[in-house]
Amino acid sequence: MALVSRVMNIGFVSIYAYRPHVEYLVYLSKLLAQDGHKTFFFVCDASVPKCYSQLLKGHGKIRECPVCILGGFRGYPVNRLYSIKSSSRKSLSEEILEAIVRSSAFTIHRVETNIDCESSAVKQTQRELFDSAEIIYGNTIDWIRENQLDGVVCFNGRMALTRAITYTCQQLDIPYITAERTTFGDGLRLVPNGDCLSLKQDDRLHKHFSRKFLTLFQAKVAAKLAARRFLRQNVSEWRVYNQAAKCLTWPLPNSKQPKVLILPSSRCEFAYHDDYDCGWQDMTTAIDDILTSLGVNHSSSILRCHPNWAEYIGRKTGTLSEQYYIDWAKDKGVYFIPSQEKADTYSLMAEADIIIVNGSSCGFEAALLGKKVICIGAAFYREAGFVYLLKEQRDLEKLRLLESHDPIETVRRALRYIYTDAYRIAQYTDFVRPDTPTQYNYFEGANSSIIINMLKSGMLSPNDTEVAEDPSGEDIILKVVLRRNWKELVQWQAPAPKLYSDKVERQASLRWIEPVRELFPTGDR
Predict the structure, then answer these.
(1) Which of 200, 299, 424, 443 has a beta carbon 3.0–4.6 Å from 420's, enabling a disulfide?
(2) DSSP output for 476-513
């Protein structure tokens, strides 16, 4: 049992009953309780008129709310539950309400351009969430004050009602942590005083560790994660795209110009987020400027539309994003591959000389192949040292650095990025391990010190601080990665975790819920 300098009152909020995030929060609450702290839980109980899940899926309260109540904290053996009261509402200005709900509205409609963001449909969705945001705001104030909370742990922090929670914490000067699943599966993504998209804490750790050697063990771990991606065996990650992809050769005739592959991703979740400012008004203008600066004809470039655009998130596919880029490609004479095509993006990457992205995971995947990666705007890996980051037009001068590009150093930095993201930024990686994207195991030995220290300091400390004194171990694995021998790398076996601790289980009468929920789509599908 960890030493407790002072008993703290910590509140937990999920609002949405997404798997496995409610379970994560219950797990963290157990760690705090075992170390002597008091835990409190905030539940909606169908007390708001509209929420993100309802609008995303087109469900009414009768269909969505019972599922959410049973799937949330009420399904677990926890105490001190605060149920939202619709009468406990406090007014907010329209400007603040729009800031709270806009990311949800943008994602529900899967916007791409600034014009999309201002559409009447988006504005209507924002207005539909205003009442709920004010109810959450008023209730959060009451909950925090009544229970004298010292801190709050909240799922996600981006979506409308969880954003209302974190906004309230900011107004009351209460430290908070947002919790999400990690990119690669192991551990938890915990962000102090930020949301699931916040970059400042990540930037600091990536910048620091991008200059540090990996040990042989760390390099093996990072390389295996990379290999699982290229072999499409990354089954514990939230989304796996284009699993039935077909290899293809570069579909354009040979020329003396560089082969440029353009791999855009959706903008909807990141639009207007403070950490994702971009000086270009739109992505296609940025691509035009880059190609012009490189002296590359549009007709020598390939646009691969993101496979996600062919998938439904809630009720919508990524039609707005795809049409925006295809219209541009047709106008400029760019060869394009639609999202629904089973073309293997990795085989295109392997043949490309230059790859243009705007923040997607393709950026570090291309870097693992040693490619010249140009990133427009922000990305989780922007401080990892393997991309040419262009936030605005004047950054085009950075393109001269392509002439001295070092593919070996690019691969090295990409491996360090993966390890930092997966095992330094991610917390509790020895204790929280997935079998599938929604089913997790929890192992003994963890305590609440990470949460307490994070709430007190407002800082994300690296989960693993070990570094190597020289590149010898890193070089061994680097040679295999450079050969792209993914099958060899994926076979490496890490030591097994420790024994199971107490399971994170629902109340006995409700344990039927999980196997039933596994029969239904996850999260936003």
Answers:
(1) 424
(2) HHHHHHHTT-HHHHHT--PPP---B-S-----GGGTTH
